[in-house]
C-alpha cells in the first residue's frame, strides 16, 4: 500500500515555477492526500501562485500579514501540520520552504515516527535540510543549469560520499553481510538527507558509484551489490614485488603475471586505464623504465 503524504507549501519562500516538479517528485514516495499552500493572497508577491492553485488542486490558506516582522504563514502551516499529525491519517509530510523556520516542526514529526521530505531552493539553510529524512533541492527537479561557481561547490563533496560508502561496506563486511545498492542509497540518505545524485549530473546512484575507484558494482540478475575494489590491496602487492626486486626492480611482464595469479579478477579497465603499464605508472612512487628489451618496474629515483 502506498504511503500517504501531506504536502504543505510555504508560498512566501518558494517560487511557483516549481509546482509541477514538486508534485512529480512527491509521487515517487506515495499518494498526496493533503495539498495546502500558505501565504498572503492579497500580496502581489504571491500572484504567480494563484494561477497554479486550481490546475494543481491545491487548497490556499489565507494568512494576512498583520504585524511587520511576524510571519503568520509559518504559524498557520505549523498549526495545520500538528492537527494533521494528531489525526493519524498520513504516513509522512512534505514541507516545501527555503527557510529554517520549520526545522523544529520537521524534528517533531520525525519523533512521531513519520517521514519528513523537505524541498527548497539552494538557499535553504542546512538546519532544515538536516532535520528532514530526505531533502531535495528544487533547482535539481527543474533541471536548471548551475553556474561554474555553483557547480564547483557541492553540498557534499564526492570524496566525502566515497569515504562514507567505504565505511558502510566495511561495517557490513565485518558483520558477514554484503551491501546492496538499495540499502546503500537508504544509508546515505540517513547520513546526508540532502544527498541527491542529480547534484553530480547523474540520474542513477549506480552511475555515480562508477566514478569511485574504491568501489565496484556486482550485478546478479536484478540485484546489484556494492563491494570494495581491490585497488589498495593490489597497489600494496605491487609495491611488495617491486621492493623484492631490489635496485633493478621487476620486469613488467612478470609483474603482470604475478598480479593475475594473486587476483583472478584483476582488470586495469576497472581502474580507469587501457594499458597495464599506465596503471603501474599511476601508483605513487613507482616508475617504469626501459632496460634493454625489458620494461623494468622500480621505485622512482632508484
Automatic annotation (TrEMBL):
This is NYN domain-containing protein. Coiled coil: none annotated. GO terms for molecular function: RNA nuclease activity. It comes from the Bacteria. Pfam families: NYN, OST-HTH. It comes from Hominibacterium faecale. InterPro entries: LOTUS-like, NYN, OST-HTH/LOTUS_dom. Residues 157-240 form the HTH OST-type domain. CDD domains: LabA_like_C, PIN_LabA-like_N_1. PROSITE patterns: HTH_OST. The lineage of its organism: Bacteria, Bacillati, Bacillota, Clostridia, Peptostreptococcales.
Amino acid at each position: 500500500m502506498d504511503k500517504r503524504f501531506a504536502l504543505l507549501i510555504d508560498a512566501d519562500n518558494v517560487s511557483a515555477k516549481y509546482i509541477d516538479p514538486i508534485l512529480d517528485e512527491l509521487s515517487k514516495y506515495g499518494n498526496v492526500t493533503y495539498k495546502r499552500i500558505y501565504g498572503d493572497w492579497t500580496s502581489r508577491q504571491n500572484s504567480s501562485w494563484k494561477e497554479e492553485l486550481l490546475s494543481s488542486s491545491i487548497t490556499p490558506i489565507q494568512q494576512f500579514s498583520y504585524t511587520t516582522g511576524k510571519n503568520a504563514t509559518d504559524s498557520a502551516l505549523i498549526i495545520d501540520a500538528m492537527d494533521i499529525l494528531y489525526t493519524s491519517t498520513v504516513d509522512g509530510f512534505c514541507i516545501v520552504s527555503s527557510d529554517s523556520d520549520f526545522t523544529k516542526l520537521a524534528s517533531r514529526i520525525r519523533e512521531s515516527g513519520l517521514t519528513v521530505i523537505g524541498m527548497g531552493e539552494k538557499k535553504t539553510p542546512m538546519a532544515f535540510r538536516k532535520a528532514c529524512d530526505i531533502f531535495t533541492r528544487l533547482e535539481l527537479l527543474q533541471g536548471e543549469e548551475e553556474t561554474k561557481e555553483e557547480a564547483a561547490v557541492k553540498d557534499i563533496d564526492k570524496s566525502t560520499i566515497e569515504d562514507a560508502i567505504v565505511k558502510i561496506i566495511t561495517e557490513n563486511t565485518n558483520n558477514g553481510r554484503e551491501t546492496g545498492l538499495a540499502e546503500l542509497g537508504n544509508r546515505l540518505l540517513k547520513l546526508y538527507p540532502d544527498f541527491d545524485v542529480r547534484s553530480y549530473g547523474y540520474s542513477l546512484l549506480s552511475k555515480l558509484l562508477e566514478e569511485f575507484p574504491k568501489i565496484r558494482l556486482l550485478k546478479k540478475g536484478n540485484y546489484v551489490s556494492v563491494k570494495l575494489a581491490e585497488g589498495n590491496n593490489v597497489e600494496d602487492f605491487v609495491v611488495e614485488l617491486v621492493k623484492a626486486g631490489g635496485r633493478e626492480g621487476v620486469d613488467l611482464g612478470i609483474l603482470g603475471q604475478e598480479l593475475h595469479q594473486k587476483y583472478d579478477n584483476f582488470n586495469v579497465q576497472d581502474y580507469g586505464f587501457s594499458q597495464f603499464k599506465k596503471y603501474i605508472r599511476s601508483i605513487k612512487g613507482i616508475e617504469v623504465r626501459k632496460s634493454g628489451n625489458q620494461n623494468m618496474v622500480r621505485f622512482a629515483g632508484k
